[in-house]
């Protein structure tokens, strides 16, 4: 699936991935898709919690070692 935007938060530790995601989400419209990539051990869990709290959907998840890529629909 295609993304409207991509955000790489690799090597950033909590809470910075969430801060960057929140900032990116504010600049996007409802229904836009954002691909976010991170490698913090808590990254995927934090992204799932953030999406649940903010009404975003996770469309795809892929893993490559510690690196996790999520496609979100905002």
Keywords summarizing the entry:
alpha+beta; Translation Initiation Factor IF3; 2 helices
- End-to-end C-alpha gap: 14 Å
**Overall radius of gyration:** 11 Å
Task: Please report the total strand number as a whole number.
Answer: 4
In helices, the fraction of residues equals 25-40%
What is the element string, with H for helices and E for strands?
A: EHEHEE
Just name the CATH architecture. Answer: 2-Layer Sandwich
CATH class, please?
Answer: Alpha Beta
What does this protein structure show overall?
- With 74 residues, the chain is an alpha+beta fold.
- The protein has one domain (5-73): Translation Initiation Factor IF3 (2-Layer Sandwich).
- 31% of the residues lie in helices and 34% in strands.
- It has helices spanning 16-26, 43-54; strands at residues 5-8, 33-38, 57-64, 67-73.
- It has a four-stranded mixed β-sheet with strand order 1-2-4-3, covered by helices on one side.
- Strand 3 and strand 4 form a beta hairpin.
- The chain starts with a strand and ends with a strand.
- The mean pLDDT is 96.
How is the secondary structure organized here?
Blueprint: E1 5-8, H1 16-26, E2 33-38, H2 43-54, E3 57-64, E4 67-73
Summed up:
The model has no long low-confidence stretch (mean pLDDT 96). This protein has helices at 16-26, 43-54; strands spanning 5-8, 33-38, 57-64, 67-73. The protein is built from 2 helices and 4 strands.
């Amino acid at each position: 699936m295609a993304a409207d935007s991509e955000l790489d938060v690799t090597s950033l530790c909590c809470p910075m991935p969430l801060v960057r995601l929140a900032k990116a989400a504010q600049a996007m419209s409802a229904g836009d898709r954002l691909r976010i990539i991170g490698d913090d051990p808590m990254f995927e869990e934090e992204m799932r919690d953030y999406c649940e709290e903010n009404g975003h959907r996770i469309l795809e998840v892929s893993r490559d070692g510690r690196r996790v890529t999520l496609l979100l629909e905002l």
